[in-house]
Amino acid sequence: MSIIVQKYGGSSVADTEKIKKVAEKVVNTYRKGNKVVVVVSAMGKSTDNLISLAKQIHDSPPTREMDLLLSTGEIVSVALLCMAIEQLGYEAEGLPGFLAGIRTDSTHTKARICTVDTRRILEELKKGKIVVVAGFQGISAEENITTLGRGGSDLTAIAIAGALKANMCEIYTDVPGVFTTDPNVVPEARVIPVISYQEMLEMASTGAKVMQSRAVEFAQKYHIPFVVKSTFTDSGGTMVTEVDFKEGAVVSSVTLDEKQAKITFFNVPDKPGVAARIFGALGEASINVDVIVQNVSTSGYTDLSFTVSTSDLEKTFEIAKTIGAELGCKSVTSDSDIAKITVIGLGMMNHPGVAARMFKALAKSKINIEMISTSEIKISCIIRKQDGQKALKVVHQEFIK
Predict the structure, then answer these.
(1) Quick one: which of 313, 340, 306, 337 has its CA closest to 203?
(2) Cα dihedral sign for 263, 269, 275, 278?
């Protein structure tokens, strides 16, 4: 049987009228003879509203209860979409994450999927039903509800598609595909028809808001091709799959991440084990570190800076201050007034001079670079947040004509 997994984001199910439209789209896919599994996010800004409620009750809400609270948003979407499908005359079965067999580790608010038990989903598909699954959530070995972090519904859809060996995974959003950059900032941005897992992963992890980076990582690991399309139009779309090499375009996309923060240790002892102490503690706290820069040692001391997501800033800074005091640092500071501009492209591997062109474009616009990070297919620069959108425009103009 042909199985199609479809995922609809929060903007696609933001109100009852949009939910009805999604139901029609799902039913049309079913009518073509496909078995259909639908993964949905919470309606519109529901998750943000739930977070706001929690903060009104508790300054630092317990993560277990936070997961329990946030999981309700997707369940509302599941129930309403099932009702809309039933109204059209078709049978639907709604499943929260734990009933859909999504088993995770115990890291609350950003759990990782361990296994997907598809038995219940397959049972319902064999009965001829459309299965609607709550994205973003699962259950741990301790039988606690967990959530998968921002954008976790993407991961749910990709994981289910992989476990079912689905014929296609379709990620529906409010844009007609993956753009060369943010079209809201750069109107000249255009849709990329086909993009590699590697490029998509770098885009997702450097500020592009189309896909969750962990979902792309999962798709690449298990070779699950997927397409990113608009809920509201039938044209366009970006296929994300295996692409070995691209002739032509050196840079395929430019991203801007304004949710970055920098931590700096001043006068940290320059000796073996210090970096391991700092980053080991952050790793134990499940904090992802991005760009790292260490200055040249002077008199046995050095300065060390690194960046993290602003969502981890508070926890990171507390850990950093504790370690800084233990190491005898002069001071530890935090700075959330930064942004990260990144150029990405498979073609960069065989084209020298990309970094020089990027730095020159920024220099022409008098934008100072504070930190630099590179890989085979990307170059990232940390700049002042106030220069972020200007940087995005000039760098996109430099590389993507």
Answers:
(1) 340
(2) negative
DSSP designation for 289: P
Helix axes 388-399, 354-364, angle to 10 degrees: 130
The whole-number pLDDT of residue 213 equals 87
pLDDT for res 247: 54
Distance of CA 302 to the CA centre of its chain: 34
- Start-to-end CA distance of the chain, whole Å, equals 44
Q: How many CB atoms lie within 10 A of CB 257?
A: 22
- pLDDT, residue 347, reads 82
**Domain 3-174 CATH superfamily:** Acetylglutamate kinase-like (3.40.1160.10)
Residues belonging to the chain = 401
Mean pLDDT, residues 11-18: 95
**Cα 279 to Cα 287: distance, rounded to the nearest angstrom:** 9
Rg (CA), the chain: 22
Instruction: Give Cα separations from 83 to 87, 214, 234 (angstroms).
Output: 6, 31, 24
Choose among 400, 398, 365, 356: nearest CA to 384: 365
H-run or E-run covering 76: helix 63-87
Boundaries of every domain in the chain: 3-174, 254-399
Question: Is the distance from CB of 210 to CB of 228 less than 8 angstroms?
Answer: yes
For the record, the structure tokens of 276 come out as 């391991």
- Count CA within 13 A, CB hemisphere, residue 238: 20
Mean pLDDT computed over every residue of the chain: 93
* pLDDT class of 297 with cuts at 50, 70, 90: confident
DSSP state string for 16-66: HHHHHHHHHHHHHHHHTT-EEEEEE--STTHHHHHHHHHHHH-SS--HHHH
The 3-state DSSP class for residue 226 equals strand
- The CATH fold assigned to 254-399 is VC0802-like (3.30.2130)
The C-alpha atoms of residue 96 and residue 22 are separated, in whole angstroms, by 19
